[in-house]
């Protein structure tokens, strides 16, 4: 069944054009002319009297999504319109009434009003004397709106004028360069007088604190009406005009900068804030420099990171950082460049992260050195301060070695018995500067803190290789050996217990924690005993519970509890065992026990004890045998049965003779013995006492009912046919045949009064509703209502018809829209009816009523034939104007001005929709722009998807559902098109959406280089050069291509003399996206040896139109030598494979040598683009198998690397790309 959400309709209620005023007792004045605002659009009236209402009329609320206006022009020439608002209720913050001083919404705005600031009396003051009133509303919460009387006057009383001023003016910076951005905040106040119709603020650049014609408008913040004594916050973002000369200026904050408001004081509107326009400056510096590790060996890799900050006020065109190895904290020619990271433009006051990985040069003597972090290390940027570019971090170079130690050791528990397990954990640390080939930890039991041959190994946790300055967590659960004598011990945590690792310090491998081994003990006790009930008859049951505690330190097995019935609180041979519970219980723990105990039949009435006895069979040797017993008292009482009735219910509706009446009750046994029967009888009586004159209507048998038990009964006894109408009682009788002997036979009856009336049927309509209006002829609305039988007899039929009428009275002129057939309807019951109503084509626009008519054919004889009709108002609009997303399939429209709708148009959309609409711009070069005006779908099931292109295979811009209004959406593709797809499931429909289509201007792209690499940095003419570059689109629009060109140049400037080495093609690149480019090329053999630069150029052929064409290039230095070495690759009989290549940053690079080569020890070294070794590890080769190894890339920057594998008769080099 389809569900309709009427409360969520795009248009919840219709527009009422005329009020139907009835009643002879009303004053004649009520029949004066009345006017209603339109739901949408505009109307004009000429009058000097009458009453103006919102579009809901005198009695109803205004419509959802309203946006209509009425202009009132005085009927007498030279007069002015006066509006006196006598009632005003408009939702604060969401709905509003706008009043304009003139003919139309382009006239000066008098004010914006809602319930918190009602308008009172308003006059037209313009030459025409007219006023325009406009109402706007959202989709929820529609109030009663307004009532305003219309008059014409010849004079307008003097108007009290508002007074606007600015306070709290603030600028984000006090100095800025020409072309730089500013943000501002302030508050605008209306100090006195009356409401200000607008409250905008303008921002001017001035050479003094006085606003004049020479001052330059920077921007503005729009503001609406502002009541007396109120203030409103304003903020702005604007740019100092390029070319502004350095010097002192003022930013003027001007209230009512367009002079739209007449004020009592026009001289207090301007506030000035001083600002300095300074010459552009760039100053790059290093912050938060860090090196890991700070203690290492020659040849080991280190990780370096920092932030580069531009402390100037202008953008730096480059922000590269070089990392140098130095013997001091000063950069000089003797320092060695380890690596660098390229950086592109860096805005003023911004910082960016830089990092690199490089190896400490081989052969460096142990000692203290420095890593220098150098901003603009190639001196590409002219800075105001060239002396603060270097930051230094001290590091120590130590002889190579490993040193394993234990840290953070833990032991639980610290006291136990032999045979129990322990939890031990610790961290093993390699504080050396070389990788340890093993990191095993052993756990020993010792009588002291020194590891020796007498200590007992508890557990060993094996560990693989552990890099320099790395840690690893170890844990185990060893058992204290059975037979260990009680006493004081130590658990030793031992790094490298088998001495498999050669360490620089072998004396710091052991840590210890104290452990006490105790003698085993067990001590069982009972706590928290409980019985329910505590009074029971012989043969009855009581529930028992308790906690069993083991206060010792060893496990008790078994750990039993016995339950005895006793005449006293002492366990002896005369006590009767009622039951037991079993289990085991570890030391220091407890266990809850539950059991149902039956008192033996024949037990004498009296007071007893239930004894809870731990280890009741004496199977456990305990340190204390005297605390095993606890008890609870129990009363054994005579057996009692007592049946009662409670919680009775009888339908309150009047009943006719012969009708079934819905009843319910509980029958209860409040005794302590089971009742063999629990029958309930239902009697019709003239009073609340059961006697022989009462009429039995129904008996429902019931079985055994236990002590203190209840049972619910639901029955439908029938009022006897022929019963005289009047007041009666329904008697609910427990045990009506007296088959159960009870201790109390006087509490078996409960009663409820009912009314028996003459039979009758009365059909009426309840909760009529429409969803999907206003509606266009030919479209449908959803209708629903409940047809209710208010009589006391079943109606044989319950049909409902739906008519379109010009009034609220059903007559022969009304148009039948639909019918819903209904079958028999019981007394007091309702049935929901729903249907879709199609408004006939050709229906004139206006206000109508949908009449909901019960029993339209008069086939049911009713006690009241005058209440069968109910109604809902409906606005019928003019012909539909707009473009629909099709129900299924695809459609295309070329336009720059339309409104698109879901497939329902103004009404609810259809179930099972799956269609798409492609919107192409009608203007060449235009880009389709969508602004959604309303949006309401079934959340999570129905969706709108918007694609940036000509079909649904284009990039998806967004998916929207529920009331998730899509943002302004602008096409960015070369066609300028957007495709809107709408899908709905098979149930639940809603109003859908509409969106305005316009054509905008395409945003431009901006291609920049984000990461570049060249390997090797020194090569011979004719040699191979591996190049890599990251290209990013920092613009707001897509780039049609993203190619990168590579040039060999003698300087950093691209000109006609530079040699093109090659080009990496690149596809389209969306805004905010980036891509990697690689190329292996040959340096021409005729290049003269010397120092060169590789120029990396984004968009080398200038095929992409960019917002900034000056930031497309970056450069790296390379050296061309005169000798080209022959290819001497030696594989020693192996086949070499490296994969994956490229490899993702952080993933392992797998190396495999397979084949029948000779066994040998090989070495793998990884070098970066600067020729620095960043990884080195051994590789043992064996014939006849696949020799595999993995090179870690964690911490390495993306770029081109060289992997070299060397050994006897083995020399292989492979180019590797890390992305």
TrEMBL record:
<keyword id="KW-0677">Repeat</keyword>
<dbReference type="InterPro" id="IPR035914">
    <property type="entry name" value="Sperma_CUB_dom_sf"/>
</dbReference>
<dbReference type="InterPro" id="IPR011635">
    <property type="entry name" value="CARDB"/>
</dbReference>
<protein>
    <submittedName>
        <fullName>Por secretion system C-terminal sorting domain-containing protein</fullName>
    </submittedName>
</protein>
<feature type="domain" description="CUB">
    <location>
        <begin position="48"/>
        <end position="153"/>
    </location>
</feature>
<dbReference type="Pfam" id="PF00431">
    <property type="entry name" value="CUB"/>
</dbReference>
<keyword id="KW-1015">Disulfide bond</keyword>
<dbReference type="InterPro" id="IPR013783">
    <property type="entry name" value="Ig-like_fold"/>
</dbReference>
<feature type="domain" description="CUB">
    <location>
        <begin position="888"/>
        <end position="1000"/>
    </location>
</feature>
<dbReference type="InterPro" id="IPR000859">
    <property type="entry name" value="CUB_dom"/>
</dbReference>
<dbReference type="InterPro" id="IPR026444">
    <property type="entry name" value="Secre_tail"/>
</dbReference>
<dbReference type="Pfam" id="PF07705">
    <property type="entry name" value="CARDB"/>
</dbReference>
């Amino acid at each position: 069944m389809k569900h309709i959400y009427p409360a969520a309709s795009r248009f919840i209620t219709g527009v009422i054009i005329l009020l139907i005023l009835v009643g002879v007792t009303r004053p004649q004045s009520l029949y004066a002319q009345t006017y209603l605002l339109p739901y949408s659009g505009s109307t004009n009236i000429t009058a000097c009297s009458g009453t103006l209402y919102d579009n809901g009329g005198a009695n109803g609320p205004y419509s959802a999504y309203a946006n209509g206006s009425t202009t009132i022009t005085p009927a007498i020439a030279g007069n002015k319109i006066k509006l006196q608002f006598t009632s005003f209720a408009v939702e604060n913050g969401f709905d509003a009434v706008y009043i304009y001083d003139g003919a139309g919404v382009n006239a000066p705005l008098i004010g914006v009003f809602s319930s918190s600031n009602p308008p009172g009396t308003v006059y037209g003051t313009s030459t025409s004397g007219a006023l325009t009133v406009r109402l706007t509303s959202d989709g929820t919460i529609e109030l009663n709106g307004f009532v305003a009387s219309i008059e014409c006057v010849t004079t307008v009383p003097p108007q009290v004028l508002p007074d606007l001023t600015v306070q709290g003016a603030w600028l984000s910076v006090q100095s800025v360069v020409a072309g730089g951005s500013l943000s501002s905040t302030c508050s605008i106040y209306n100090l006195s007088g009356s409401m200000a119709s607008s409250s905008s603020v303008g921002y001017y650049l001035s050479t003094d604190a006085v606003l004049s014609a020479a001052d330059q408008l920077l921007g503005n913040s729009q503001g609406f009406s502002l009541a007396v004594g109120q203030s409103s916050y304003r903020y702005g973002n604007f740019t100092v005009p390029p070319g502004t000369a350095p010097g002192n200026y003022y930013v003027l904050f001007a209230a009512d900068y367009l002079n739209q408001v007449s004020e009592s004081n026009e001289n207090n509107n301007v506030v000035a804030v001083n600002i300095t326009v300074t010459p552009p400056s760039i100053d790059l510096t290093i912050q938060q420099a860090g090196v890991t590790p700070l203690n290492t060996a020659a040849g080991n890799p280190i990780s370096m990171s920092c932030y580069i900050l531009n402390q100037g006020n202008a953008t730096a065109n480059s922000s590269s950082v070089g990392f140098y190895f130095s013997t001091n904290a000063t950069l000089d020619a003797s320092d060695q460049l380890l690596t660098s990271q390229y950086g592109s433009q860096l805005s003023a006051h911004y910082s960016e992260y830089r990092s690199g990985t490089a190896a400490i040069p081989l052969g460096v003597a142990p000692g203290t050195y420095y890593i220098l972090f150098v901003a603009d290390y190639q001196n590409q940027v002219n800075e105001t301060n060239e002396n603060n570019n270097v930051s230094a971090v001290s590091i120590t170079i130590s002889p190579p070695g490993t040193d394993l130690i234990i840290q953070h050791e833990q032991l639980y528990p610290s006291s136990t018995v032999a045979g129990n397990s322990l939890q031990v954990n610790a961290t093993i640390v390699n504080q050396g500067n070389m990788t340890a080939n093993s990191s095993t930890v052993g756990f020993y039991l010792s009588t002291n803190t020194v590891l020796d041959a007498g200590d007992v190994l508890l557990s060993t946790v094996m560990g693989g290789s552990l890099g320099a300055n790395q840690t690893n967590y170890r844990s185990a659960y060893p058992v204290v050996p059975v037979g260990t004598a009680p006493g004081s011990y130590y658990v030793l945590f031992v790094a490298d217990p088998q001495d498999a690792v050669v360490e620089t310090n072998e004396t710091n491998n052991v840590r210890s924690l104290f452990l006490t081994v105790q003698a085993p003990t067990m001590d069982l006790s009972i706590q928290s005993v409980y019985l329910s009930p505590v009074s029971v008859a012989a043969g009855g049951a009581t529930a028992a519970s308790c906690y069993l505690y083991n206060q010792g330190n060893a496990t008790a097995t078994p750990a039993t509890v016995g339950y005895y019935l006793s005449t006293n609180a002492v366990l002896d041979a005369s006590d009767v065992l009622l039951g037991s519970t079993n289990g085991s219980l570890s030391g220091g723990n407890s266990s809850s026990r539950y059991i149902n105990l039956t008192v033996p039949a024949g037990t004498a009435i009296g007071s007893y004890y239930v004894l809870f006895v731990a280890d009741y069979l004496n199977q456990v040797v305990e340190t204390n045998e005297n605390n095993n017993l606890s008890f609870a008292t129990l009363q054994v009482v005579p057996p009692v049965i007592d049946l009662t009735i409670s919680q009775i219910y009888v339908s309150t509706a009047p009943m006719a003779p012969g009708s079934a009446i819905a009843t319910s009750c509980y029958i209860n046994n409040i005794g302590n013995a089971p009742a063999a029967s629990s029958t309930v009888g239902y009697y019709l009586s003239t009073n609340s006492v059961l006697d022989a004159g009462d009429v039995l209507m129904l008996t429902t048998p019931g079985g055994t009912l236990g002590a203190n038990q209840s049972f619910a009964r639901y029955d439908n006894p029938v009022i006897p046919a022929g019963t005289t109408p009047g007041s009666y009682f329904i008697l609910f009788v427990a045990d009506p045949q007296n088959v159960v002997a009870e201790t109390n036979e006087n509490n078996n009856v409960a009663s409820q009064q009912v009314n028996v009336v003459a039979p009758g049927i009365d059909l009426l309509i309840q909760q009529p509703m429409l969803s999907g209006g206003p509606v266009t002829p030919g479209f449908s609305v959803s209708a629903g209502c409940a047809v209710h039988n208010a009589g006391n007899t079943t109606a044989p039929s319950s049909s409902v018809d739906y008519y379109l009428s010009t009034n609220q009275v059903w007559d022969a002129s009304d148009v039948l829209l639909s019918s819903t057939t209904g079958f028999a309807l019981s007394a007091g019951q309702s049935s929901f009816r729903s249907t879709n109503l199609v408004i006939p084509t050709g229906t004139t626009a206006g206000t109508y009523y949908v009449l909901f008519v019960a029993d339209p054919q008069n086939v049911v004889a009713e006690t009241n034939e005058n209440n069968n009709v109910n109604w809902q108002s409906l606005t019928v609009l003019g012909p539909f104007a707009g473009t629909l997303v099709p129900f299924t399939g695809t459609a295309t429209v070329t336009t720059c001005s339309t409104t698109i709708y879901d497939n329902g148009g103004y009404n609810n959309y259809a179930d099972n929709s799956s269609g798409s609409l492609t919107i192409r711009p009608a203007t060449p070069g235009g880009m389709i722009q969508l602004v959604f005006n309303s949006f309401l779908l079934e959340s999570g099931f129905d969706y709108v998807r918007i694609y940036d292109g000509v079909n649904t295979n284009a990039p998806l811009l967004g998916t929207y559902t529920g009331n998730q209004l899509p943002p302004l959406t602008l096409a960015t593709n070369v066609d300028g098109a957007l495709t809107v797809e709408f899908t709905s499931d098979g149930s639940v429909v809603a109003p859908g959406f509409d969106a305005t289509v316009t054509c905008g201007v395409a945003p431009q792209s901006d291609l920049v280089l984000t990461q570049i690499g060249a390997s090797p940095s020194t090569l011979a003419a004719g040699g191979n050069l591996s190049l890599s570059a990251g290209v990013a689109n920092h613009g707001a629009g897509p780039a049609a291509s993203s190619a990168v060109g590579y040039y060999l140049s003698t300087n950093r400037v691209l000109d006609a003399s530079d040699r093109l080495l090659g080009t990496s093609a690149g596809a389209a690149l969306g805004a905010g996206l980036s891509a990697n480019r690689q190329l292996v090329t040959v340096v021409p053999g005729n290049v003269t040896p010397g120092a060169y630069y590789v120029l990396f150029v984004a968009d080398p052929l200038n095929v992409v139109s960019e917002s900034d064409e000056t930031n497309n290039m970056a450069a790296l230095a390379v050296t061309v030598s005169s000798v080209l070495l022959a290819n001497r690759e030696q594989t020693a009989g192996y086949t070499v494979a490296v994969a994956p290549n490229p490899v993702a940053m952080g993933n392992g690079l797998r190396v495999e040598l397979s084949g029948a080569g000779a066994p040998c020890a090989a070495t793998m070294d990884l070098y970066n683009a600067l020729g620095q070794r960043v990884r080195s590890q051994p590789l043992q080769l064996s014939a006849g198998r696949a020799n595999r190894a993995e090179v870690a890339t964690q911490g390495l920057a993306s770029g081109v690397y060289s992997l070299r594998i060397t050994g006897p008769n083995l020399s292989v080099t492979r180019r590797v790309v890390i992305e």
